[in-house]
Amino acid sequence: MTGSSVNRLELLHFRTEICLKTITSTFAQVILLIGLSVVATMRVSAAEQGTSAATKARMIQLITMLESDPFLKDGKEVRGEVMSWLA
Q1: 40 with 61, same domain?
Q2: Tell me: the pLDDT tens digits for 23-75?
Q3: How many domains does the chain have?
């Protein structure tokens, strides 16, 4: 092979590599965008549903228990349940 054909092959390889990186990057961005859209839709849907009356009553009961006895035996689990409901 001559020097110019080697240079052309190297240039072709370089261009192919750049194209593949661009395609991969774009594909990753599209997947990320789709994932974020799905998560946002799920959160909006959950927010629109609201909280049932039974769940609200249970959370009020748990919060009242924690206020009356902060060192409750199962306090860690109760606080965790209340905090996950709040989030």
Answers
A1: no
A2: 777 777 778 788 888 877 777 666 666 778 898 999 999 999 888 988 888 88
A3: 2
